[in-house]
Design goal:
mainly alpha, Serine Threonine Protein Phosphatase 5, Tetratricopeptide repeat, 22 helices
C-alpha cells in the first residue's frame, strides 16, 4: 500500500480525473491494500507458529480458540475479495445470497461496485435478489449505473432489474449515470419497456404516496405524530429528509413539532438542509422553523448544509427572517411606548382650554374689584408704598366714564386680564398725571396708544363701583413708542 506522503502527492492528479477514472483508481488502491493485508496476515501466522512451538512441547496441546464471524460478514468479505470458490462453498452450505450487513448492503451490491461480473453471475444463479435495497434505497442497478459498469448493467437488466427504482434521494439509476454508453443502454431499455415521462413521475411519487397513506391511517387511529421513531427521528424529520412536501404540509397542519430533536439534536430543518430539500426548507421556515437551532454539537442548519444552492437559499431566508424579527421588535417597542404613554396620561399636565382660561380671568378680575372697593383703613393687609401713593392720586378726581365704555365690560376684562394689580395702578396714575380731567369732548395724547376699534378713554371710574380699567394696546414692532418718565413711579 502506498505511504501517506505518496497519497498526498497523488491528490492533485486525482482531482483532475473524471468520475470513472477515480473509481478505477480507487479499486486499484483497494486491491493493493487487500493484497498487502493478506501478505501481512500470512507473515503474522508464520511468526506466531514459530513462537508457539516450544510452548506446546512444554505444556502439552491445548484447544485453539477461533473467532467466528456471522455468515453475512463472511459472505460479503469473500465476495469483496472475488473469491469464487469460497462464495460457492458458502452458497452450497445453505448460506443465503441475500444476507446483508448493518447498512443493508448485499454481496450483489458489492460485486456491482467492484465490477466482479463472474461473482455477480454466480450470486444471481444462486437466487440473489436483483432489486435488493440497502438502507438508503439503492439497488444493485443503482450501484452499477453510478460506477458506469456497462456489462453489469446489461446483466442486471436481463435479470429483470427495476429501471424505475427510486432511492431515498429520489434518484433512479439513469439519474446517477454519467457514462454515455451506460446511460444510452439504460434509456434504450426504458424505451423498450414502454416507460414514459408520466410513468417516471408516478414512480417518483410512489414513496410519498405510501407515506401519505400510512399517515392517514395514523391520524384515524389517533396516534401521536411527535412520537420518536428510529434514532429519535419523528415523522416530520423523515418527510423533511425525503422531500415529501404533501406529507410535511399535512403534518404541520396537524400540529407536528418543528422543534422536535432526534438523538443528534437535529430538528426537521436540519434534515431538510442536510439532504438538500430546498422546498422543504422553505416550507418549514414559512411555518416558523428556527434557522438558528443548534444540534448537540452546536450545528445550525446552515452548518450541516452541503449543497451550495440550498445554502444560498438558507442565507436568504435567514436575512428575511432576521429583518422580520427586527420589524416585529420595533412594533412591540412602539406598542409598549404607546401603552406606557396611555397609562400615564393622568400624570401629565393637560393644556387649559380657552373657556377655562376666560373663567380664570374673570375670577381674577372679581378679586381685583373687591380689593379696589376696600378702603385703605379696613384693608386686611397694608399695601406697598407705591400702591398707596397711586390710590391717593387716583382718588383726587375720578373722571366720568363714557356710555360706550360702560357697555363693554367683557372686552375690558379680556384686555386687562394679563396685567397685575400694581401695573394697572401705575398705568392709571401715569395717565392721570399726563392728562387733565376731561371737561368737554375727550382728547387723546399723541404719546399714549389708543384702541382705535373701540375708541374708549384710557382710564376712568365706572358708575357701578368697579375698579377703573385702562384699555391699552401693545406698541407695534415697526414703530416702538418711546418711554418717557412721567413721574417717579415709572
Amino acid at each position: 500500500m502506498a505511504e501517506h506522503l505518496e497519497l498526498l502527492a497523488e491528490m492533485p492528479m486525482v482531482g483532475r480525473m473524471s468520475t470513472q477514472e477515480r473509481l478505477k483508481h480507487a479499486q486499484k488502491r483497494r486491491a493493493q491494500q487487500v493484497k498487502m493485508w493478506a501478505q501481512a496476515e500470512k507473515e503474522a501466522h508464520g511468526k506466531k507458529g514459530r513462537r508457539e512451538q516450544p510452548w506446546k512441547e512444554v505444556s502439552g496441546l491445548r484447544p485453539r480458540k477461533q473467532v467466528l464471524f456471522p455468515p453475512s460478514v463472511a459472505l460479503l468479505e469473500a465476495a469483496s475479495r472475488n473469491d469464487l470458490e469460497e462464495v460457492r462453498q458458502f452458497l452450497s452450505s445453505g448460506v443465503s445470497p441475500n444476507l446483508a450487513n448493518e447498512d443493508g448492503l448485499t454481496a450483489l451490491h458489492q460485486c456491482c461496485i467492484d465490477d466482479f461480473q463472474e461473482m455477480a453471475q454466480q450470486l444471481l444463479e444462486a437466487g440473489a435478489d436483483v432489486n435488493a435495497r440497502d438502507s438508503e434505497g439503492w439497488t444493485p442497478l443503482h450501484a452499477a449505473a453510478t460506477c458506469g459498469h456497462l456489462h453489469l448493467v446489461d446483466l442486471l437488466i436481463s435479470r429483470g432489474a427495476d429501471l424505475l427504482a427510486v432511492n431515498t434521494d429520489g434518484n433512479m439509476p439513469y439519474d446517477l449515470c454519467e457514462d454515455e454508453q451506460t446511460l444510452d443502454c439504460l434509456e434504450t431499455a426504458m424505451a423498450n419497456r414502454g416507460i414514459t415521462q408520466d410513468s417516471i413521475e408516478e414512480a417518483r411519487a410512489v414513496p410519498e404516496l405510501c407515506m401519505l397513506n400510512d399517515l392517514q391511517s395514523l391520524l384515524h387511529a389517533g396516534a401521536n405524530l411527535n412520537d420518536p421513531l428510529d434514532h429519535g427521528a419523528t415523522l416530520l424529520h423523515i418527510a423533511a429528509a425525503n422531500g415529501f412536501s404533501e406529507v410535511a404540509a399535512l403534518l404541520l397542519e396537524q400540529g407536528a413539532s418543528l422543534s422536535a430533536k432526534d438523538h443528534d439534536g437535529w430538528e426537521p430543518l436540519h434534515a431538510a438542509a442536510y439532504w438538500g430539500q430546498v422546498h422543504l426548507v422553505e416550507l418549514l421556515v414559512a411555518h416558523g422553523a428556527d434557522l438558528n437551532g443548534k444540534s448537540l454539537v452546536d450545528e445550525t442548519p446552515l452548518d450541516v448544509c452541503g449543497d451550495e444552492e440550498v445554502r444560498a437559499r438558507l442565507l436568504e431566508l435567514k436575512h428575511k427572517q432576521d429583518a422580520l424579527l427586527r420589524a416585529q421588535g420595533r412594533q412591540r417597542s412602539l406598542l409598549r411606548r404607546r401603552t406606557s404613554s396611555a397609562g400615564s396620561r393622568g400624570k401629565v399636565v393637560r393644556r387649559v382650554s380657552l373657556t377655562h382660561r376666560t373663567d380664570l380671568y374673570r375670577k381674577e378680575h372679581a378679586q381685583e374689584a373687591i380689593v379696589w372697593q376696600q378702603s385703605p383703613l379696613t384693608s386686611p393687609e397694608p399695601l406697598e408704598d407705591e400702591d398707596r401713593q397711586t390710590d391717593a392720586e387716583l382718588r383726587l378726581q375720578p373722571p366720568e366714564l363714557s356710555p360706550a365704555e360702560s357697555g363693554a365690560p367683557e372686552a375690558l376684562v379680556r384686555d386687562k386680564a394679563h396685567h397685575t394689580l400694581a401695573e394697572l395702578k401705575r398705568q392709571r396714575a401715569a395717565a392721570k398725571l399726563q392728562r387733565p380731567a376731561p371737561e368737554g369732548p375727550e382728547t387723546f395724547e399723541p404719546g399714549l396708544p389708543v384702541d382705535t376699534e373701540t375708541s374708549q378713554p384710557d382710564c376712568g371710574f365706572r358708575t357701578t363701583g368697579d375698579p377703573p380699567l385702562l384699555k391699552l394696546t401693545a406698541p407695534s414692532e415697526e414703530a416702538p413708542v418711546e418711554k418717557r418718565p412721567c413721574c417717579l413711579l415709572m
